Amino acid sequence: MKKTLLGAILALSLPVAAQAGELTARAGDGFFGASYEGSLLLMTTSADWLTNDGIGNIGSLGLGVQAPLGIAKLKAGGKLVYMDLKHQDNHYAAALGGGVDIPVGAFTLYGQGYFAPSGLASDGVDHYKEMRAGVRWDMTKMVSLDAGYQYSHMEGKNGNRSVSIADGLYVGAQLNF
């Protein structure tokens, strides 16, 4: 057990130690999000936080793989999602999904999506889904500006109400290191 935990911590810390990553903040109508993604060779790690004052917070930790396909970078993996929602029990899910980044000159088109069916979620969750898509302007190698659309939704069951933490356009900034 200790070796497994130590291996997981080491795997998640490798991209951080390699200093290859990006830190992003984005704000939309009623929601705010922050993300970290690190990569080393073909492995990626991620941490996301999304908040909506009237609804609650969602946090996640992810692990995945990435591979180049022509000029595009494809990503696939999973994330553990924790939902701290107002006026109901806290929920969790194990979501699977992926994304793509396509550079076009000084811009990058990107999209990602994750889904967790009821079998990979806590009792009060019928399913969880999230997606984010947009365009990033790479001003310099270190700084980028973002604009896009984000959707994050938990469909409730067993008396738990369904909620959307984010459903709209956003603007943001990214620091690459």
From TrEMBL:
Cleaved signal peptide residues: 1-20
UniProt keyword annotation of Signal present: yes
UniProt entry keywords in alphabetical sequence: Signal
InterPro entries linked: YfaZ (IPR009998)
UniProt xrefs under SUPFAM superfamilies: Porins
Pfam entry (one): YfaZ
Protein name: Outer membrane protein
Organism encoding this protein: Iodobacter fluviatilis
